[in-house]
Amino acid sequence: MMRDGYVARWQGREYQASPDGDDIRLYQPEPGEGFDEVRAGRYVRVLPASEIEDLAYVRTTCTWQGQPFIVLGKHDAWLRVEYTGGRWPVAEAMRLEVFDFGVYQGWAPAAEVTDLREQRV
Description:
Strand content: over 45%
Shape: elongated
Radius of gyration: 17 Å
Structural class: mainly beta
């Protein structure tokens, strides 16, 4: 599973989450007590931050062609990756797309990616 976003632990269970001021929105794919349906397969519950056991930002990182990346998504046998090495000549040599100033992204064959791991930041 490749994640890139907030997660919160509440009552011993981890949820996708979204901080909202003094509150934390918890998300799950199935109905549950206190969770309201926001769309098919997506339920939310809003809790005060003081009730949350842990809140962290989780992202999936990897190495591709010897360079550091974060994984943004997956499609079939490809990973959407964003270069985190900060060196424009390297990004250019890898033919990465300029997504924004200093932000370079591309599609990497999943079979070529190594060191795939989840990190809490």
